[in-house]
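Minimal example, chain plus coenzyme A.
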Amino acid sequence: MKFVVRKAKIKDIPEITKMWKQFMKDHDDTVIPKDPRMKPQLKRPQTAHNTFSKFLAKNIRSKDATVFVLDCSGTLIGYAIGFKKKTPPVFKMKEIGYLSDIYIKRGYRSKGLGSKMIDELREWCKNKGLKYLSLIVYEKNPRAQKLYSRKGFYFHSREMRMKV
Ligand SMILES: CC(C)(COP(=O)(O)OP(=O)(O)OC[C@H]1O[C@@H](n2cnc3c(N)ncnc32)[C@H](O)[C@@H]1OP(=O)(O)O)[C@@H](O)C(=O)NCCC(=O)NCCS
């Protein structure tokens, strides 16, 4: 099988949105059960897929963002979204790259494709003059964390939450 990483087009939005729905279901089935406190916080409205489609369109059109898809002979099997993000204004470094989503369809995992997508995002950041790429990963997603660590990501800060 031949895989190509390419920039997403507007016409890819329905297919990417389908993958996003599966991504959310994967998290519902594998990540949330490991920490039930997450459940009420990650509920989505019925219209969430429309919101996501608009978010995709915005990022596909923006010069400060990128959406990559993995194309396997016309079938999309993964996607990744990255964009420039402002840092707090007190710092000299004004913006960094941010990996907002990465998803590979089940059945195509453990073939180095996730790693390939990260390489593409890294290249995109370099071409945009960005010095760092950052992401947020759930504590209970060890598979993704393992991949990120292998690629060179390290913990810079950790978000803490409490119920009030
Ligand atoms: C996280 C995710 C994107 C990783 O994608 P992937 O394509 O499986 O990633 P890779 O194949 O590059 O690396 C994963 C594993 O495959 C192994 N691998 C890498 N290249 C390989 C190859 N050529 N052949 C076989 N295995 C390989 C790696 O060693 C790694 O194994 P590890 O668990 O021991 O580290 C994927 O599991 C996914 O979509 N998960 C659901 C969505 C998600 O959680 N996204 C992250 C949100 S923060």
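Residues 13-31 form the longest helix (19 residues). The chain has one domain: 3-151.
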